[in-house]
Design a protein that fits this description.
By secondary structure, this protein is mainly β. It has a domain of 124 residues. Helix content is 7%, strand content 46%. It has 4 helices and 42 strands. The strands form 4 sheets. The chain has a 20-stranded antiparallel sheet, with helices on one face. A 12-stranded antiparallel sheet has the order 21-22-23-24-25-26-27-28-29-30-31-32, with no helix packed on it. A 6-stranded antiparallel sheet has the order 40-39-38-37-41-42. Helix 2 crosses helix 3. The longest helix has 12 residues. The protein starts with 5 loop residues before the first strand and ends in a 15-residue tail after the last strand.
Length: 577
């Protein structure tokens, strides 16, 4: 499954086992950033070389689980995390950040997180009979209670002072948000959303019209006007309808790779931002250049699977070398959304207390020293963009105020599916790191034996399930993708309700019987589980047949390609094409 090497603004190549180079060319000059990767004998990722002599190292145990993470900037080193331990089926249950703060997590028998202790800060989680979070209680912000409708959509969240109620139409569009003060019992804010009668397109908010283009992309939000490129990607943003304040470019993989910001009024180039991704598409950094093209600073994120551990802000000399830097440690919630940040002395610098949809600005100077701490990460897969005032979510842009995307799903409308909705109205329980949803991946045939006909894996909320002769393998999706970097893969997003996703997850976690290459092969568990929730693929024998069947059924919401990041070793069967 070939991946085109060029699209509009640049090229992204993975030419060898050990390096990944991104190249970007724009009118104001060329920007080069190189990432290097190191693997152990079992092909597990053990090192990432960031630009400017910034290096990340992973220590792994005999089960290939990461037990320690270290950072080096030139000849200076720091521990990001140590003493990382796991429960038997994978989730992290404890670690120590480099500043000495301890993480401790407690799970119930269904592996639902029930308590998290981050240093002195504690959060507890309670669940209803449908596994929806019914209450969170934190030592920082107090308790919040949640209610849901029969379809698992969040209908109410309530603190000790404020209640927010949400209403939906029959296709899952949020039609109203009412905010009520519990002190006065008065409604302090009401947001009414109206939609086109023949689609799920949002047409107005509180009576103010929201224009869209022919593809259904919003062209104006909050006083900003948007234009889109030929691929339907947001390409320009204007303030006051006439002043261009930013434009954007994307690569062949759909990743935003460059942003140019302009001085409003003069239209002079204020600065350029380039974005860095690992081979799995995870955003790991952004580098800033001034209006003259001089590299000035950068923000880099260091991950433990899908958990961001730390952020490094680096300032660069005129030679492009790190002249000064600041390392902070990130502390996340149950979704891996950053909520707190601390420094080397364990002082709290930054915190983000939002509603369920992300409404609420971060506090950037918690310690009151007059120095703001900026963290752009939001919900998993999202980074806040100041120019659009939206959260860039890989394939689309998320509007936290309306709790939906500004663009339709890249595949378009499929029957009655709501292709603008975010995680089916349940942002407490589900994430959408690609702007898509549950992914079934068909892998390229390699080697001999059963894999010579390809392979199938399924990713649900950051966890991948892979069935083979040795049984069901369950791994964090990022780790699974690393292990399969020797072959191409194509993932298709399946439109499922949160309850269907939960049912499929439970089904895949149950006993699958004995592996059989013709009767119970790698594609059988996901097909059996999909059939139980009403998606009948007619028991396809080959992985490629399953992929084609899902496409033909019209249940696919999006496609993501995983190009091989290193060559396969050994010989492959003649039919493994």
């Amino acid at each position: 499954m070939p991946v085109p090497s060029r699209q509009q603004s640049g090229v992204v190549n993975w030419p060898s086992l050990l390096s990944s180079r991104g190249w970007w060319g724009v009118n104001s000059g060329d920007y080069y950033e190189t990432l290097n990767y190191g693997y152990d004998a079992a092909r597990n990722l053990v090192q990432i070389g960031y630009p400017s002599s910034i290096n990340l190292t992973y220590t792994r145990n005999s089960a290939a689980q990461v037990t320690g993470v270290r950072l080096a900037i030139g000849n200076k080193t720091a521990t990001l995390a140590s003493n990382i331990s796991y429960l038997p089926f994978g989730p992290v249950n404890s670690l120590t950040w480099g500043n000495g703060i301890l993480l401790s997590r407690t799970y119930d028998q269904d592996y639902q997180l029930t308590q998290q202790q981050v240093g002195n800060w504690q959060t507890t989680y309670r669940y209803d009979a449908d596994s929806n979070i019914s209450e969170t209680a934190t030592s920082l912000w107090g308790a919040v209670q949640y209610e849901y409708d029969a379809l698992g959509r969040l209908t109410q969240e309530q603190t000790n002072s404020v209640k927010k109620a949400y209403s939906f139409d029959a296709t899952g569009n949020r039609t109203q948000r009412t905010t009520t003060s519990l002190t006065t019992s008065d409604a302090t804010d009401t947001q009414s959303l109206n939609y086109a009668s023949d689609s799920n397109r949002l047409t107005s908010i509180n009576g103010s019209t929201l224009p869209v283009d022919a593809a259904g992309n919003h062209t104006q939000i909050n006083g900003r006007r948007f234009t889109y490129d030929s691929q339907g990607r947001l390409s320009e943003v204007y303030q006051a309808n006439i002043y261009k304040i930013a434009d954007y470019k994307y690569n062949a993989l759909g990743q935003r790779i460059i942003k140019r910001a302009y001085v409003m009024g003069s239209q002079a180039l204020a600065g350029t931002t380039t974005y860095l991704y690992d081979p799995n598409g995870k955003l790991i950094g952004q580098t800033f250049y001034d209006g003259n093209g001089q590299k000035t600073s950068g923000q880099y994120w260091f991950w433990l699977d899908n958990m961001p551990l730390a952020q490094l802000t680096a300032n660069f000399s005129t030679l492009g070398e790190v002249s000064s830097s600041k390392l902070i440690y990130l502390h996340v919630d149950h979704l891996n959304t950053p909520r707190l940040a601390t420094d080397s002395t364990q002082a709290l610098l930054w915190r983000w207390n939002s509603d369920a949809y992300g409404v609420g600005s971060p506090e950037e100077d918690v310690d009151g020293d007059g120095k703001a701490t900026s963290i752009a990460l939001r919900f998993p897969g999202q980074i806040y963009d100041a120019q659009t005032q939206l959260s860039y979510n890989y394939y689309r842009d998320y509007n936290l105020d309306t709790g939906r995307y500004a663009q339709s799903d890249p595949i378009g409308l499929n029957g009655g599916f709501n292709t603008y909705g975010y995680v089916k109205g349940n942002p407490l329980s589900f994430v959408d790191p690609l702007g898509l949803e549950t992914m079934v991946t068909v892998w390229q045939p390699v080697g001999f034996g059963s894999s010579s006909f390809g392979h199938v894996s399924t990713s649900i909320n950051g966890t991948t399930y892979s069935w083979g002769p040795g049984g069901m393998t369950t791994l964090p999706t990022s780790e699974y993708l690393e292990k399969n970097g020797f072959r191409d893969g194509m993932a298709v997003g399946i439109d499922l309700t949160p309850q269907q996703e939960q049912d499929v997850k439970v089904c895949l976690s149950s006993d699958q019987g004995s592996y059989n290459v013709t009767q119970n092969n790698c594609g059988s568990p996901i097909q059996n589980c999909l059939q139980k929730v009403g998606v009948d693929t007619k028991n396809q024998l080959l992985p490629v047949s399953l992929g084609n069947r899902l496409l033909d059924m019209g249940v696919v919401k999006g496609i993501k390609e995983y190009p091989a990041s290193r060559p396969a070793t050994g010989r492959s069967a003649p039919w493994a094409k």
